[in-house]
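Incident log, structure service

09:12 report received: a user says their structure output differs between two submissions of the same chain.
09:20 pulled the input from the user's history:
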Amino acid sequence: MVEYGGRRGEIRWSDQTLLPLRPIKQFSGTVSCWYCDFKFSALNEPLFRFGRRHSRCLRVWFSIGVVFSLAALLGVTLIILCELVRTTLVCAGNTWTGNSLFGLASVIDGLHISLPNMVYLCLSSVICVFVHELGHALAAASEGVHIEYVAIFLAVLFPGALVAFNHSSLQALPVVASLRIYCAGIWHNAAFCVGCALALVLLPFIFSPFYIHGESLMVLDVPSMSPLYGYLSRHDVIFSLDGIRIHTIEEWKQTITMLTEQTYSISSDQPSVNLNVENGYCIPQSLTKEIAQVQFKGNQTYCPKELIAFASMTCLDVEKYTNDANRNNIHCMDAKDVIKLKKCAYPNFKEQALTNGSSCLCSEVESCLTPMQLPGLGWVEITYSSLECHNRRRSLFSPEKHSSGEKISCLQTFVYVGDLITMANSIHLTSYLPRWSIYFMAYLPNLLEKLFTYACHVSMVLTLLNSLPVFFLDGEYILEATLHCFGLLSSRMRQSVRRCCLLVGTSYSACFILQTIFVSVS
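09:34 re-ran on a clean worker, output below:
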């Protein structure tokens, strides 16, 4: 944000000024019922000297920013107009065809900011505002405009910052030079957003001497409310889900989504019970005779604590995968013992059956038993190990042996039965594994990754907001300076056009934001 003397939004000479003509104290402040600020001028001279020393390079840099900001001002305004027209037509038909062009509805709808994430948000906001105001200050210094002070303020509950310039020096500048100053904040935020995105891409290479990225997932925290609390611990390394190797957080999310879709597809075919041969295990028939059968109360099955009901399935070939889940073929078994046995079928059992004629792996003296799940509840095997074991396994085995899936004794497996999406979102994971078992090192990449992610998003939001033709934002000053380029317009007509554009822009922007929030909430 930029502040200068004279009537707000008018670039013309005036004997009156809102800024003091003499230097203010190095530190000062203002406090009222709805507004408070903190002004400081300690950086005035260093920034001015730097701007004058590198004025030629800075002018070229900020001239590029003028082109970008004017394009952003026009583009964002057109997008908002198109969105309002589209939404009005859609609402008139009482239908909704999707998210907005910005995707803000989906972002707000899925926004769950915890206390630690709020710290990242506040810190990234401070950094992005600093980058924004630094752009204004450097652009002004490169044009020979002295900085009066830098202020950090809190208006009602909205924080912000501004750079106040010497009024006389600012009024003497040509229009193009003024545009470089007004557009500098938007341009710096856009460049900073690109820089954060680039840093996220290069982060695995930067940390490669100390961390391995994309080999496995490591658990950073398991809250006490998580359904995996007591099963996974901090610094455990997750190896696979249902035998599917997991390397990154994106693969974790994709696999969870795939398994959830499979669960619901089976539930739609068998609404009363889920039986999936891919989750079946070959149980020796001699063992099933010794196990007590499940108890029934009406149509519901009941097993003792920590036991799960398993039903037998016919597993001869792909044409005979039928459900034999009658009361005589249902048994209560311990999942910890069952998952140690081999599976009834390959993961791609249907393709195997078409090529080999049979996909069943059970022998004649074994029965294929699969867990009975309630509709909507998933069954997933989670294979993991400790960080020490993972590092020891990496040092003992070559990449060829590692990729061949050689069985390592320190790998452990447990079964989770329940809502998979809730389970996946309940723990904190990272794709970075420290090369050495030094636990405090485990959190550094995740901290920087989150900080860069939040800073990228906040900087992008500041770029879009300040590009709008809205009162009290940079778009107001950019619009005013741009209108001065049209010499055919009189001063009075320019002010009328400016006020009309700002009123329409502010109204449309407010409607767009409120509409986006309403759509996401409803």
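09:41 both user submissions now match this output. Likely a transient worker issue. Closing.
09:42 reviewer note: The chain has 16 helices and 17 strands. The mean pLDDT is 76.
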